[in-house]
Amino acid sequence: MKGPDLAMEVTVISAEDLNDDSSVFGFRLRPFVTAFAGAAAVDCDRLPMPLQRTRLADGSDPAWGDLLRIPLDPSFLVSTRGGDDDDAGICLVVLSKRPLGGAARLGWCRIPPADVLDGLRHPSAIRRLSYALRHPRHGGRSRGVVHVAVRLVGRDINRLLRPQPAPALPPQQPGWGGVAMGIPVVPLGSPPCWSGFGVDSPPVAAARMPGSAKDARPWSSALTLV
Question: Which residues form the C2 domain (predicted)?
Answer without folding.
Answer: 1-127
